[in-house]
Amino acid sequence: VARNPGEAEFHQAVREVLESLGPVVRKHPEYLEAKVIERICEPERQIIFRVPWVDDKGEVQVNRGFRVEFNSALGPFKGGLRFHPSVYLGIIKFLGFEQIFKNSLTGLPIGGGKGGSDFDPHGRSEGEIMRFCQSFMTELYRHLGEYTDVPAGDIGVGGREIGYMFGQYKRITNRYESGVLTGKGLTWGGSLVRKEATGYGTVVFANEMLKSHGESMEGKTVTVSGSGNVAIYAVEKVHQLGGKVIGFSDSSGYVVDEAGVDLELLKQIKEVERGRVADYVARRDSAHLGRDGGIWDVPTDVALPCATQNELHGDHALTLIKNGVRVVAEGANMPTTPEGVSAFQEAGVLFGPAKAANAGGVATSALEMQQNAGRDAWDFEYTEQRLTEIMVGIHETVAETSEEYGMPGDYVAGANIAGFVKVADAMKAFGIV
Ligand code: NDP
Protein backbone atom coordinates (compact mmCIF):
# COMPACT_ATOMS: atom_id res chain seq x y z
CA VAL A 1 0.00 0.00 0.00
CA ALA A 2 2.81 2.41 0.89
CA ARG A 3 4.50 1.61 -2.40
CA ASN A 4 1.37 2.39 -4.46
CA PRO A 5 -0.43 5.15 -2.51
CA GLY A 6 -4.01 6.09 -3.37
CA GLU A 7 -4.63 3.15 -5.72
CA ALA A 8 -7.60 1.64 -3.87
CA GLU A 9 -8.87 -0.62 -6.66
CA PHE A 10 -5.38 -1.98 -7.31
CA HIS A 11 -4.95 -2.80 -3.61
CA GLN A 12 -8.35 -4.52 -3.63
CA ALA A 13 -7.47 -6.66 -6.67
CA VAL A 14 -4.05 -7.65 -5.30
CA ARG A 15 -5.43 -8.50 -1.86
CA GLU A 16 -8.10 -10.72 -3.42
CA VAL A 17 -5.49 -12.73 -5.34
CA LEU A 18 -2.92 -12.94 -2.54
CA GLU A 19 -5.55 -14.18 -0.07
CA SER A 20 -5.91 -17.30 -2.24
CA LEU A 21 -2.21 -18.08 -2.54
CA GLY A 22 -1.38 -19.39 0.96
CA PRO A 23 -1.76 -23.07 0.01
CA VAL A 24 0.23 -22.49 -3.20
CA VAL A 25 3.32 -21.05 -1.55
CA ARG A 26 3.20 -23.74 1.13
CA LYS A 27 3.34 -26.33 -1.65
CA HIS A 28 5.88 -24.34 -3.74
CA PRO A 29 8.23 -22.43 -1.40
CA GLU A 30 10.48 -21.83 -4.42
CA TYR A 31 8.04 -19.08 -5.53
CA LEU A 32 8.85 -17.17 -2.34
CA GLU A 33 12.61 -17.61 -2.77
CA ALA A 34 12.39 -16.23 -6.32
CA LYS A 35 10.22 -13.34 -5.04
CA VAL A 36 7.62 -14.19 -7.68
CA ILE A 37 4.83 -12.51 -5.73
CA GLU A 38 6.70 -9.21 -5.31
CA ARG A 39 7.67 -9.28 -8.98
CA ILE A 40 4.18 -10.14 -10.24
CA CYS A 41 2.71 -7.15 -8.35
CA GLU A 42 5.12 -4.74 -10.05
CA PRO A 43 4.23 -3.84 -13.66
CA GLU A 44 7.01 -4.46 -16.16
CA ARG A 45 6.40 -0.99 -17.58
CA GLN A 46 3.91 1.87 -17.02
CA ILE A 47 3.36 4.59 -19.59
CA ILE A 48 1.48 7.81 -18.73
CA PHE A 49 1.10 10.43 -21.41
CA ARG A 50 -0.57 13.70 -22.46
CA VAL A 51 -3.47 13.48 -24.93
CA PRO A 52 -4.18 16.96 -26.33
CA TRP A 53 -7.03 17.48 -28.83
CA VAL A 54 -9.30 20.23 -30.14
CA ASP A 55 -13.07 20.07 -29.47
CA ASP A 56 -15.84 21.24 -31.82
CA LYS A 57 -15.77 24.74 -30.33
CA GLY A 58 -12.11 25.06 -31.21
CA GLU A 59 -11.02 24.77 -27.58
CA VAL A 60 -7.97 22.74 -26.62
CA GLN A 61 -8.71 19.79 -24.30
CA VAL A 62 -6.08 17.84 -22.40
CA ASN A 63 -6.63 14.28 -21.17
CA ARG A 64 -4.30 11.76 -19.59
CA GLY A 65 -3.47 8.47 -21.33
CA PHE A 66 -2.25 5.26 -19.68
CA ARG A 67 -0.83 1.92 -20.73
CA VAL A 68 0.29 -0.44 -18.00
CA GLU A 69 2.31 -3.31 -19.47
CA PHE A 70 1.95 -5.59 -16.49
CA ASN A 71 3.31 -9.02 -17.30
CA SER A 72 4.59 -10.66 -20.48
CA ALA A 73 5.65 -14.03 -19.07
CA LEU A 74 3.14 -15.91 -21.24
CA GLY A 75 3.01 -13.71 -24.34
CA PRO A 76 2.66 -10.11 -25.57
CA PHE A 77 0.86 -7.71 -23.22
CA LYS A 78 -2.85 -8.03 -23.93
CA GLY A 79 -5.82 -6.17 -22.47
CA GLY A 80 -8.30 -3.45 -23.30
CA LEU A 81 -8.37 0.34 -23.35
CA ARG A 82 -10.98 2.11 -21.20
CA PHE A 83 -12.23 5.63 -21.91
CA HIS A 84 -14.17 6.87 -18.87
CA PRO A 85 -13.86 9.94 -16.63
CA SER A 86 -13.18 7.72 -13.59
CA VAL A 87 -9.95 6.36 -15.13
CA TYR A 88 -6.72 6.93 -13.17
CA LEU A 89 -3.63 4.83 -12.54
CA GLY A 90 -5.26 2.73 -9.76
CA ILE A 91 -8.08 1.57 -12.08
CA ILE A 92 -5.74 0.70 -14.94
CA LYS A 93 -3.41 -1.19 -12.59
CA PHE A 94 -6.24 -3.21 -11.06
CA LEU A 95 -7.48 -4.13 -14.51
CA GLY A 96 -3.98 -4.95 -15.77
CA PHE A 97 -3.24 -7.10 -12.72
CA GLU A 98 -6.47 -9.09 -13.12
CA GLN A 99 -5.72 -9.49 -16.79
CA ILE A 100 -2.51 -11.44 -16.07
CA PHE A 101 -4.39 -14.28 -14.39
CA LYS A 102 -7.41 -14.16 -16.69
CA ASN A 103 -5.22 -14.44 -19.77
CA SER A 104 -3.30 -17.29 -18.18
CA LEU A 105 -6.58 -19.15 -17.53
CA THR A 106 -7.52 -19.01 -21.23
CA GLY A 107 -4.61 -21.34 -21.96
CA LEU A 108 -3.56 -19.06 -24.84
CA PRO A 109 -0.15 -17.33 -25.20
CA ILE A 110 -1.00 -13.84 -23.95
CA GLY A 111 0.45 -11.67 -21.21
CA GLY A 112 -1.46 -9.03 -19.23
CA GLY A 113 -1.84 -5.27 -19.69
CA LYS A 114 -4.46 -2.54 -19.68
CA GLY A 115 -4.76 1.09 -20.69
CA GLY A 116 -7.10 3.96 -21.29
CA SER A 117 -7.85 7.57 -20.57
CA ASP A 118 -9.97 9.83 -18.37
CA PHE A 119 -11.66 11.06 -21.59
CA ASP A 120 -15.49 10.99 -21.38
CA PRO A 121 -17.01 9.97 -24.72
CA HIS A 122 -20.60 10.70 -23.60
CA GLY A 123 -22.05 13.63 -25.52
CA ARG A 124 -19.01 14.00 -27.77
CA SER A 125 -19.47 14.29 -31.54
CA GLU A 126 -18.06 11.79 -34.06
CA GLY A 127 -15.38 14.31 -34.99
CA GLU A 128 -14.35 14.81 -31.38
CA ILE A 129 -14.16 11.05 -30.75
CA MET A 130 -12.02 10.62 -33.88
CA ARG A 131 -9.62 13.43 -33.00
CA PHE A 132 -9.26 12.13 -29.46
CA CYS A 133 -8.54 8.57 -30.67
CA GLN A 134 -5.98 9.86 -33.18
CA SER A 135 -4.18 11.92 -30.56
CA PHE A 136 -4.20 8.98 -28.13
CA MET A 137 -2.64 6.67 -30.74
CA THR A 138 -0.10 9.29 -31.81
CA GLU A 139 1.69 8.57 -28.54
CA LEU A 140 0.66 4.97 -27.91
CA TYR A 141 1.73 3.55 -31.28
CA ARG A 142 5.44 3.51 -30.37
CA HIS A 143 4.76 1.09 -27.51
CA LEU A 144 2.67 -1.40 -29.49
CA GLY A 145 3.34 -4.28 -31.83
CA GLU A 146 1.85 -7.68 -32.52
CA TYR A 147 4.71 -9.31 -30.58
CA THR A 148 4.89 -6.58 -27.93
CA ASP A 149 1.56 -5.18 -26.81
CA VAL A 150 -1.88 -5.67 -28.36
CA PRO A 151 -4.72 -3.52 -26.90
CA ALA A 152 -8.45 -4.08 -27.37
CA GLY A 153 -11.67 -2.31 -26.27
CA ASP A 154 -13.26 -1.93 -22.85
CA ILE A 155 -15.74 0.56 -21.37
CA GLY A 156 -16.15 3.45 -23.82
CA VAL A 157 -14.03 1.77 -26.51
CA GLY A 158 -15.94 -0.25 -29.11
CA GLY A 159 -15.54 -0.96 -32.81
CA ARG A 160 -15.75 2.72 -33.76
CA GLU A 161 -12.88 3.78 -31.49
CA ILE A 162 -10.75 0.74 -32.45
CA GLY A 163 -11.26 1.80 -36.09
CA TYR A 164 -10.01 5.35 -35.51
CA MET A 165 -7.02 4.06 -33.52
CA PHE A 166 -6.12 1.39 -36.06
CA GLY A 167 -6.37 3.94 -38.88
CA GLN A 168 -3.97 6.24 -37.07
CA TYR A 169 -1.56 3.38 -36.23
CA LYS A 170 -1.49 2.31 -39.88
CA ARG A 171 -0.92 5.86 -41.04
CA ILE A 172 1.95 6.59 -38.65
CA THR A 173 3.77 3.29 -39.06
CA ASN A 174 3.00 2.56 -42.72
CA ARG A 175 2.27 -1.01 -41.65
CA TYR A 176 -0.96 -2.94 -42.08
CA GLU A 177 -0.22 -4.74 -38.86
CA SER A 178 -3.68 -6.10 -38.21
CA GLY A 179 -2.56 -8.10 -35.18
CA VAL A 180 -1.74 -4.91 -33.26
CA LEU A 181 -5.28 -4.22 -32.01
CA THR A 182 -8.21 -6.59 -31.52
CA GLY A 183 -11.91 -5.89 -31.76
CA LYS A 184 -11.44 -4.71 -35.34
CA GLY A 185 -14.21 -4.51 -37.96
CA LEU A 186 -14.89 -7.66 -39.94
CA THR A 187 -13.69 -6.25 -43.27
CA TRP A 188 -10.33 -5.12 -41.88
CA GLY A 189 -8.99 -8.00 -39.84
CA GLY A 190 -11.60 -8.44 -37.13
CA SER A 191 -12.91 -11.79 -35.95
CA LEU A 192 -16.45 -13.03 -35.99
CA VAL A 193 -17.74 -13.63 -32.43
CA ARG A 194 -15.35 -11.06 -30.86
CA LYS A 195 -18.20 -8.62 -30.28
CA GLU A 196 -20.33 -11.32 -28.68
CA ALA A 197 -17.51 -13.14 -26.90
CA THR A 198 -17.42 -11.69 -23.38
CA GLY A 199 -21.19 -11.82 -22.87
CA TYR A 200 -21.54 -15.23 -24.49
CA GLY A 201 -18.61 -16.60 -22.52
CA THR A 202 -19.96 -15.34 -19.21
CA VAL A 203 -23.26 -17.11 -19.79
CA VAL A 204 -21.55 -20.31 -20.96
CA PHE A 205 -19.52 -20.22 -17.75
CA ALA A 206 -22.67 -19.65 -15.62
CA ASN A 207 -24.32 -22.54 -17.44
CA GLU A 208 -21.33 -24.80 -16.68
CA MET A 209 -21.61 -23.88 -12.99
CA LEU A 210 -25.29 -24.81 -13.08
CA LYS A 211 -24.57 -28.04 -14.98
CA SER A 212 -22.05 -29.12 -12.36
CA HIS A 213 -25.02 -29.01 -9.95
CA GLY A 214 -27.38 -30.89 -12.22
CA GLU A 215 -29.16 -27.77 -13.52
CA SER A 216 -28.94 -25.46 -16.55
CA MET A 217 -29.89 -21.99 -17.80
CA GLU A 218 -33.12 -23.38 -19.26
CA GLY A 219 -36.11 -21.75 -17.57
CA LYS A 220 -34.02 -19.52 -15.28
CA THR A 221 -34.76 -15.85 -14.72
CA VAL A 222 -31.73 -13.58 -15.14
CA THR A 223 -30.89 -9.96 -14.36
CA VAL A 224 -27.98 -8.16 -16.03
CA SER A 225 -26.45 -4.87 -14.99
CA GLY A 226 -25.28 -2.48 -17.70
CA SER A 227 -26.41 -2.50 -21.31
CA GLY A 228 -23.12 -2.20 -23.11
CA ASN A 229 -21.16 -4.68 -25.15
CA VAL A 230 -20.89 -7.36 -22.46
CA ALA A 231 -24.45 -7.03 -21.19
CA ILE A 232 -26.16 -7.13 -24.61
CA TYR A 233 -24.50 -10.38 -25.68
CA ALA A 234 -25.02 -11.93 -22.27
CA VAL A 235 -28.74 -11.31 -22.83
CA GLU A 236 -28.51 -12.90 -26.29
CA LYS A 237 -26.84 -16.08 -25.00
CA VAL A 238 -29.22 -16.43 -22.04
CA HIS A 239 -32.14 -16.38 -24.46
CA GLN A 240 -30.41 -18.91 -26.76
CA LEU A 241 -29.99 -21.26 -23.78
CA GLY A 242 -33.65 -20.99 -22.80
CA GLY A 243 -33.37 -18.53 -19.89
CA LYS A 244 -35.25 -15.24 -19.58
CA VAL A 245 -33.59 -11.88 -18.89
CA ILE A 246 -36.05 -9.76 -16.90
CA GLY A 247 -33.96 -6.68 -16.11
CA PHE A 248 -30.96 -4.56 -17.18
CA SER A 249 -29.56 -1.11 -16.42
CA ASP A 250 -27.28 1.74 -17.41
CA SER A 251 -25.86 4.59 -15.34
CA SER A 252 -29.20 6.44 -15.57
CA GLY A 253 -31.37 3.66 -14.03
CA TYR A 254 -32.75 0.16 -14.51
CA VAL A 255 -35.53 -1.57 -16.39
CA VAL A 256 -37.78 -4.45 -15.37
CA ASP A 257 -39.34 -6.39 -18.23
CA GLU A 258 -41.10 -9.49 -16.88
CA ALA A 259 -42.03 -10.60 -20.41
CA GLY A 260 -38.32 -11.01 -21.17
CA VAL A 261 -36.03 -8.39 -22.67
CA ASP A 262 -36.66 -7.60 -26.35
CA LEU A 263 -33.13 -8.08 -27.64
CA GLU A 264 -33.63 -6.42 -31.02
CA LEU A 265 -35.08 -3.30 -29.36
CA LEU A 266 -32.23 -3.26 -26.84
CA LYS A 267 -29.64 -3.45 -29.64
CA GLN A 268 -31.41 -0.75 -31.66
CA ILE A 269 -31.43 1.64 -28.71
CA LYS A 270 -27.99 0.92 -27.32
CA GLU A 271 -25.90 0.03 -30.40
CA VAL A 272 -27.56 2.16 -33.07
CA GLU A 273 -29.18 5.13 -31.32
CA ARG A 274 -26.83 5.18 -28.29
CA GLY A 275 -29.92 5.93 -26.16
CA ARG A 276 -30.80 5.44 -22.46
CA VAL A 277 -32.86 2.84 -20.57
CA ALA A 278 -35.88 5.22 -20.60
CA ASP A 279 -35.95 4.99 -24.41
CA TYR A 280 -36.44 1.20 -24.12
CA VAL A 281 -39.32 1.58 -21.68
CA ALA A 282 -41.00 4.18 -23.91
CA ARG A 283 -41.20 1.60 -26.73
CA ARG A 284 -42.00 -1.58 -24.78
CA ASP A 285 -45.39 -2.08 -23.09
CA SER A 286 -44.26 -4.89 -20.76
CA ALA A 287 -41.34 -2.86 -19.35
CA HIS A 288 -41.15 -0.25 -16.63
CA LEU A 289 -38.32 1.75 -15.11
CA GLY A 290 -37.10 0.58 -11.70
CA ARG A 291 -38.96 2.62 -9.13
CA ASP A 292 -36.55 2.44 -6.26
CA GLY A 293 -33.36 0.65 -5.25
CA GLY A 294 -31.42 -0.81 -8.14
CA ILE A 295 -31.18 -3.76 -10.49
CA TRP A 296 -30.11 -6.09 -7.64
CA ASP A 297 -33.48 -5.58 -5.91
CA VAL A 298 -35.18 -7.54 -8.72
CA PRO A 299 -35.71 -11.19 -7.62
CA THR A 300 -33.85 -13.55 -9.97
CA ASP A 301 -32.27 -17.02 -10.24
CA VAL A 302 -29.11 -15.77 -11.94
CA ALA A 303 -27.41 -12.36 -11.57
CA LEU A 304 -24.84 -11.19 -14.12
CA PRO A 305 -23.06 -7.95 -13.16
CA CYS A 306 -21.84 -6.62 -16.52
CA ALA A 307 -21.37 -2.86 -15.96
CA THR A 308 -18.37 -1.81 -13.88
CA GLN A 309 -16.19 -2.38 -10.80
CA ASN A 310 -17.67 -2.40 -7.28
CA GLU A 311 -21.27 -2.11 -8.47
CA LEU A 312 -22.59 -5.04 -6.38
CA HIS A 313 -22.12 -4.38 -2.65
CA GLY A 314 -22.61 -6.53 0.44
CA ASP A 315 -26.18 -5.29 0.97
CA HIS A 316 -27.05 -5.96 -2.67
CA ALA A 317 -25.72 -9.50 -2.23
CA LEU A 318 -27.88 -10.02 0.87
CA THR A 319 -30.97 -8.84 -1.03
CA LEU A 320 -30.21 -11.19 -3.94
CA ILE A 321 -29.67 -14.09 -1.51
CA LYS A 322 -32.92 -13.30 0.32
CA ASN A 323 -34.69 -13.34 -3.04
CA GLY A 324 -33.29 -16.79 -3.89
CA VAL A 325 -30.39 -16.16 -6.31
CA ARG A 326 -28.59 -19.41 -7.29
CA VAL A 327 -25.73 -18.21 -9.50
CA VAL A 328 -23.70 -15.02 -9.88
CA ALA A 329 -21.22 -14.77 -12.76
CA GLU A 330 -19.16 -11.62 -13.25
CA GLY A 331 -19.23 -10.26 -16.81
CA ALA A 332 -17.62 -6.99 -15.69
CA ASN A 333 -14.23 -6.78 -13.99
CA MET A 334 -14.38 -6.90 -10.16
CA PRO A 335 -18.05 -5.79 -10.05
CA THR A 336 -18.64 -7.45 -6.67
CA THR A 337 -17.08 -5.93 -3.54
CA PRO A 338 -15.22 -8.26 -1.13
CA GLU A 339 -18.23 -8.13 1.26
CA GLY A 340 -20.49 -9.17 -1.61
CA VAL A 341 -18.24 -12.10 -2.56
CA SER A 342 -18.11 -13.34 1.06
CA ALA A 343 -21.88 -13.09 1.43
CA PHE A 344 -22.47 -15.16 -1.71
CA GLN A 345 -19.91 -17.78 -0.74
CA GLU A 346 -21.23 -18.10 2.82
CA ALA A 347 -24.78 -18.53 1.50
CA GLY A 348 -23.67 -21.28 -0.90
CA VAL A 349 -24.49 -19.24 -4.02
CA LEU A 350 -22.39 -20.39 -7.01
CA PHE A 351 -20.05 -17.45 -7.60
CA GLY A 352 -18.01 -17.16 -10.83
CA PRO A 353 -15.31 -14.48 -10.55
CA ALA A 354 -14.52 -12.19 -13.47
CA LYS A 355 -11.10 -13.56 -14.29
CA ALA A 356 -12.71 -16.89 -15.12
CA ALA A 357 -16.25 -15.94 -16.15
CA ASN A 358 -15.45 -13.04 -18.50
CA ALA A 359 -12.28 -14.46 -20.06
CA GLY A 360 -14.15 -15.25 -23.30
CA GLY A 361 -13.54 -11.74 -24.62
CA VAL A 362 -9.79 -11.80 -24.38
CA ALA A 363 -9.71 -15.43 -25.48
CA THR A 364 -11.50 -14.50 -28.69
CA SER A 365 -9.12 -11.56 -29.08
CA ALA A 366 -6.32 -14.12 -29.02
CA LEU A 367 -8.22 -16.06 -31.69
CA GLU A 368 -8.40 -12.83 -33.70
CA MET A 369 -4.59 -12.56 -33.39
CA GLN A 370 -4.26 -16.15 -34.60
CA GLN A 371 -6.41 -15.40 -37.65
CA ASN A 372 -4.40 -12.24 -38.39
CA ALA A 373 -1.09 -14.09 -38.08
CA GLY A 374 -2.38 -16.81 -40.41
CA ARG A 375 -3.89 -14.26 -42.89
CA ASP A 376 -7.11 -16.15 -42.33
CA ALA A 377 -10.73 -15.58 -41.30
CA TRP A 378 -12.77 -18.28 -39.61
CA ASP A 379 -16.53 -18.65 -39.84
CA PHE A 380 -18.91 -17.86 -36.98
CA GLU A 381 -19.71 -21.44 -36.10
CA TYR A 382 -16.09 -22.57 -35.81
CA THR A 383 -15.05 -19.47 -33.86
CA GLU A 384 -17.92 -19.82 -31.43
CA GLN A 385 -17.10 -23.49 -30.99
CA ARG A 386 -13.53 -22.52 -30.04
CA LEU A 387 -14.88 -19.93 -27.57
CA THR A 388 -17.25 -22.44 -25.98
CA GLU A 389 -14.48 -25.05 -25.66
CA ILE A 390 -12.25 -22.45 -23.99
CA MET A 391 -14.96 -21.44 -21.48
CA VAL A 392 -15.81 -25.07 -20.66
CA GLY A 393 -12.07 -25.69 -20.25
CA ILE A 394 -11.67 -22.73 -17.89
CA HIS A 395 -14.59 -23.97 -15.79
CA GLU A 396 -13.00 -27.40 -15.58
CA THR A 397 -9.56 -26.03 -14.66
CA VAL A 398 -10.98 -23.75 -11.99
CA ALA A 399 -13.21 -26.44 -10.48
CA GLU A 400 -10.38 -29.02 -10.47
CA THR A 401 -7.89 -26.59 -8.97
CA SER A 402 -10.28 -25.66 -6.18
CA GLU A 403 -10.61 -29.37 -5.38
CA GLU A 404 -6.87 -30.03 -5.63
CA TYR A 405 -6.22 -27.32 -3.05
CA GLY A 406 -8.98 -28.53 -0.71
CA MET A 407 -11.58 -25.82 -1.42
CA PRO A 408 -14.11 -27.54 -3.71
CA GLY A 409 -16.64 -25.16 -5.24
CA ASP A 410 -14.55 -22.08 -4.40
CA TYR A 411 -14.22 -20.64 -7.90
CA VAL A 412 -12.42 -17.56 -6.58
CA ALA A 413 -9.56 -19.58 -5.12
CA GLY A 414 -9.54 -21.98 -8.09
CA ALA A 415 -9.24 -19.15 -10.62
CA ASN A 416 -6.58 -17.25 -8.68
CA ILE A 417 -4.45 -20.33 -8.08
CA ALA A 418 -4.70 -21.84 -11.57
CA GLY A 419 -4.03 -18.45 -13.19
CA PHE A 420 -1.09 -17.71 -10.91
CA VAL A 421 0.77 -21.02 -11.09
CA LYS A 422 1.25 -20.91 -14.84
CA VAL A 423 2.61 -17.37 -14.81
CA ALA A 424 4.78 -18.08 -11.75
CA ASP A 425 6.33 -21.14 -13.38
CA ALA A 426 7.20 -19.14 -16.49
CA MET A 427 8.69 -16.33 -14.40
CA LYS A 428 10.75 -18.83 -12.45
CA ALA A 429 12.04 -20.39 -15.67
CA PHE A 430 13.17 -16.98 -16.95
CA GLY A 431 15.33 -16.28 -13.89
CA ILE A 432 15.34 -12.92 -12.14
CA VAL A 433 14.09 -10.59 -14.89
P1 NDP B 1 -19.56 -0.60 -22.42
O1 NDP B 1 -19.00 0.77 -22.37
O2 NDP B 1 -19.99 -1.17 -23.72
O3 NDP B 1 -20.81 -0.70 -21.43
C1 NDP B 1 -20.73 -0.39 -20.08
C2 NDP B 1 -22.14 -0.42 -19.55
O4 NDP B 1 -22.12 -0.31 -18.13
C3 NDP B 1 -22.99 0.73 -20.05
O5 NDP B 1 -24.33 0.31 -20.17
C4 NDP B 1 -22.85 1.74 -18.92
O6 NDP B 1 -23.92 2.66 -18.83
C5 NDP B 1 -22.87 0.83 -17.74
N1 NDP B 1 -22.26 1.46 -16.58
C6 NDP B 1 -21.01 1.96 -16.49
N2 NDP B 1 -20.83 2.46 -15.27
C7 NDP B 1 -21.99 2.24 -14.61
C8 NDP B 1 -22.43 2.53 -13.31
N3 NDP B 1 -21.62 3.13 -12.44
N4 NDP B 1 -23.69 2.15 -12.95
C9 NDP B 1 -24.51 1.52 -13.84
N5 NDP B 1 -24.14 1.24 -15.09
C10 NDP B 1 -22.90 1.61 -15.46
O7 NDP B 1 -18.46 -1.54 -21.71
P2 NDP B 1 -18.29 -3.11 -21.80
O8 NDP B 1 -19.63 -3.76 -21.87
O9 NDP B 1 -17.28 -3.42 -22.81
O10 NDP B 1 -17.63 -3.42 -20.38
C11 NDP B 1 -18.38 -3.65 -19.20
C12 NDP B 1 -17.53 -4.35 -18.16
O11 NDP B 1 -17.03 -5.58 -18.70
C13 NDP B 1 -16.28 -3.60 -17.71
O12 NDP B 1 -16.03 -3.92 -16.35
C14 NDP B 1 -15.18 -4.19 -18.57
O13 NDP B 1 -13.91 -4.04 -17.99
C15 NDP B 1 -15.63 -5.63 -18.59
N6 NDP B 1 -15.09 -6.44 -19.67
C16 NDP B 1 -15.32 -6.12 -20.98
C17 NDP B 1 -14.83 -6.90 -21.98
C18 NDP B 1 -15.18 -6.66 -23.41
O14 NDP B 1 -14.87 -7.53 -24.23
N7 NDP B 1 -15.85 -5.58 -23.77
C19 NDP B 1 -13.95 -8.05 -21.70
C20 NDP B 1 -13.84 -8.37 -20.30
C21 NDP B 1 -14.36 -7.55 -19.35
P3 NDP B 1 -23.75 4.17 -19.40
O15 NDP B 1 -23.74 4.01 -20.89
O16 NDP B 1 -24.93 4.86 -18.85
O17 NDP B 1 -22.44 4.67 -18.85
From TrEMBL:
SMART domains hit by this protein: ELFV_dehydrog
What are the UniProt keywords, alphabetically? NAD, Nucleotide-binding, Oxidoreductase
Gene3D superfamilies tied to this protein = Glutamate Dehydrogenase, chain A, domain 3 (1.10.285.10), Leucine Dehydrogenase, chain A, domain 1 (3.40.50.10860), NAD(P)-binding Rossmann-like Domain (3.40.50.720)
Active site feature? 114
Domain Glutamate/phenylalanine/leucine/valine/L-tryptophan dehydrogenase C-terminal: residue ranges: 191-431
The UniProt site entry described as Important for catalysis is assigned to 154
Work out whether the entry's keyword set contains Hydrolase. no
**The keyword Transit peptide is assigned to this record:** no
GO terms in the biological process aspect are: glutamate biosynthetic process
Q: Name one GO molecular function term.
A: nucleotide binding
**Residues given in the record as NAD(+) binding sites:** 198, 229
Q: Which PROSITE patterns match?
A: GLFV_DEHYDROGENASE
What are the binding positions for substrate in this chain? 78, 99, 102, 153, 365
**UniProt GO cellular component terms:** cytosol
What is one Pfam family matched by this protein?
ELFV_dehydrog
Subunit comment: Homohexamer.
Similarity field = Belongs to the Glu/Leu/Phe/Val dehydrogenases family.
The entry's protein name is Glutamate dehydrogenase
- What organism is this sequence from? Tessaracoccus oleiagri
